[in-house]
Design a protein that fits this description.
The protein is built from 25 helices and 16 strands. The chain is α/β, with parallel strands linked by helices. Helix 10 packs across helix 23 and helix 17 packs across helix 22.
């Protein structure tokens, strides 16, 4: 705890629960909101991408006096290198996630991970068929081994044949485009290695060639994400609609409260299971029981599959500790602020790291191992119970705010909902609604939080604006967390914010599913964690195939109103490469080169059909996203009319 009260304007959020904690704290305990203010002004060289730190001669900055780096690299080379290294960092994070799942499946098949099993054999069969494997007459174990072998190949092979998780999930048109541009990745790990080698000092200085390598790496990122999502579904079950709650009010002061934070479901699933089995131990120390709750994408994983309530998203992860009622915050990998440890020092909370490559100085460490997963989960719960006994009752002050959440919408779950209207061709329910003008398209809301914009404000504004314009929204990651905790992921939000076309679409679906769903459908469909953006893109591919077109013609856009991490850069890059208009609400670090910036916003459209849109004003963001969707719905309508008029076999392939 700081010795002196700090007077800084740190109220950079619209989440009322977070504001309550910040106002009560009044600068006594330092948080990310304080550190952002203290960091101003930030370096403009870094903000525009024209600072190079790749070799030890630097850092080199591009200025009016120094138009090149010491080695002679132009600004466009520096910006392009920095950009694709960011893509590479994001791909590396997702690859780490996917690799861990691959390893766990391998250990399970070898008999070394007894706490894991195939929870969804039907998903196993669907994945096998998707990647071109025969499933007839095969035992579950043998089929899983074949899927595993294919995943290992996509991660490690050195030859040129297409990745199975790319070829099996995108349109033929996209595959041809990538072959024409020579950006098919050999494998996930090869793409990562190539990018690091290509951006080393004295290798590639051609900005266009560098950008193409970045796009290749982004496709490897897509494949890594898809593998992680599919293996998670096979091991833990494909998400189905589930009702829960979100925001700080989910904390129960009478229970042992365990916050699960990070991105890896391998341990969190075990902790949820252990918590449900260890109620007696908690009661023995005076608690009513044990309650798990989620932060970031680990939270999304256990919400989607287990109904575990969502506590908060990335930016406000320190604040739940400051309620005095969190007994343990268990972290694995990605988006974990080192600052949580300093905040926990002011309370009884145990910060528990679990991965050998993701530690925090001073935190408790319980090393996760696949062969002792359940045992490790119980060890973590015991630490939380011990911490509960050290609580200071006079320091417990939990905001009461929480909201109802309906989540669990995998692609399979969405198709089940549509099948109640059209069992023979479920996706046609969505494409027909767009053809008729009832809906104006689909938008994927993804990405992080970023204090360069007001926390949660941009996401909330974009959701409400798109809803009023009759856009169907799916969400992942921290943007799904925003919608969940701020009352935008339930049926009441439909009535309050949706336009008449969107409301009528929901009425039709709710009536058709009256005897199949326990709750009416939410305004925003929660599709999962960051890696589940691959799941969200599958919906785009289904729409394209239904219309008989390639994805650059589909009225489907992506929006990251508060993007922050390298993972967001990688995801946004494959969204563009796979043909989506992609809005980013925080201008990325590439504007120092007009050439690279122009490639991202203009040339990309000509080559791939997708393109980036930088717009930080959330109200204007709604306008530019709607412009992109409306252009596509108009063109699609004109091309369909031309097809009918001239009786051509296929619709125009141009975009």
């Amino acid at each position: 705890m700081s010795k002196e009260k700090k007077k800084v304007d740190n109220k950079r959020t619209v989440d009322p629960a977070a504001l309550e904690v910040l106002e009560r704290n009044d600068g006594q305990i330092e948080t990310a909101y304080d550190r952002y203010v203290q960091m101003q002004p930030q370096c403009n060289f870094g903000r525009t991408g024209i600072c190079c730190r790749i070799c030890l001669q630097g850092p080199c900055r591009i200025t009016r006096k120094a138009s090149k780096g010491i080695c002679g690299a132009h600004g466009y080379t520096i910006v392009a290198r920095n950009l694709i290294r960011a893509i590479n960092g994001g791909c590396g994070a997702h690859a780490d996630h996917g690799r861990h799942l691959i390893y766990t499946v391998s250990e399970m098949l070898a008999g070394n991970a007894p706490d894991y099993s195939v929870e969804d054999p039907e998903k196993l069969r669907r994945v096998a068929q998707m990647i071109g494997l025969s499933v007839e007459g095969k035992e579950e174990r043998d089929l899983l081994q074949e899927v595993l072998d294919a995943a290992v190949s996509d991660f490690t092979k050195l030859t040129d044949e297409p990745l199975r998780w790319l070829e099996g999930t995108i349109t033929e048109g996209r595959m041809k485009k990538f072959a024409d541009c020579n950006i098919h990745p050999r494998s996930v790990q090869t793409a990562i290695s190539e990018t690091m080698g290509q951006t080393h000092m004295g290798v590639d200085s051609d900005p266009v060639n560098l950008v193409f390598q970045g796009l290749k790496t982004s496709l490897a990122d897509f494949a890594a994400e898809h593998i992680a999502t599919d293996l998670s579904d096979i091991l833990f079950g494909t998400p189905k609609p589930v009702t829960s709650e979100a925001n700080f009010g989910v904390i129960d002061p009478e229970m042992v409260n365990v916050a699960l934070h990070g991105h890896n479901p391998l341990l969190s699933e075990m902790i949820v299971r252990a918590a449900r089995e260890m109620t007696a131990e908690a009661e023995a120390v005076g608690a009513k029981g044990i309650k798990c709750m989620g932060i970031c994408c680990t939270g999304n994983e256990v919400l989607m599959r287990q109904g575990v309530p969502m506590l908060t998203n990335f930016l406000s992860q320190e604040l739940p500790i400051m309620t005095g009622a969190i007994d343990a915050m268990v972290v694995d990998v990605q988006c974990i602020m080192p600052g949580i440890r300093a905040v926990a020092e002011c309370f009884h909370t145990r910060i528990i790291t679990t991965m050998s490559h993701s530690k925090i100085a001073g935190a408790h460490h319980v090393e996760f191992t696949e062969d002792r997963a359940a045992e490790k989960a119980r060890e973590i719960i015991h630490l939380a119970i011990e911490a509960y006994k050290e609580r200071l009752p006079d320091r417990i002050d939990v905001p009461k705010l929480k909201n109802k959440v309906t989540a669990g919408f995998s692609v399979e779950a969405m198709l089940d909902v549509f099948a109640a209207v059209n069992p023979d061709n479920p996706i046609k329910v969505l494409t027909d609604a767009i053809d008729s003008g009832q809906l104006n398209g689909v938008v994927l809301l993804c990405g992080c939080n970023n204090l360069r914009v007001l926390h949660d404000h941009s996401c909330v504004t974009v959701i409400k604006g798109l809803a009023a314009n009759n856009v169907l929204m799916v969400a992942t990651g921290c943007m799904a967390g925003t919608a969940a905790k701020l009352n935008l992921m339930n049926a009441e939000a439909v009535e309050e914010h949706a336009g008449e076309g969107l409301k009528e679409f929901y009425r039709m679906l709710n009536e058709a599913n009256a005897d199949r769903l326990t709750d009416k459908l939410p305004l925003v469909f929660h599709m999962g964690s960051c890696v589940d953006n691959s799941r969200a893109y599958d919906l785009n591919t289904l729409m394209a195939n239904q219309w008989g077109i390639d994805t650059p013609k589909v009225p489907y856009a992506a929006s990251a109103p508060e993007a922050m991490s390298e993972k967001a850069v990688a995801i946004g890059s494959w969204c563009v490469t796979l043909g989506m208009p992609t809005h980013v609400g925080v201008t990325p670090e590439i504007t120092g080169s007009a050439l690279v910036d122009g490639v991202a916003r203009q040339i990309a459209h000509d080559v791939y059909g997708g393109y980036f849109i930088w717009e930080e004003d959330p109200d204007k963001s709604v306008e530019v996203i709607m412009d992109a969707l409306n252009e596509r719905t108009w063109k699609l309508r004109v091309h369909r009319q031309a097809q009918e008029k001239y009786e051509t076999e296929k619709i125009s392939a141009g975009w």
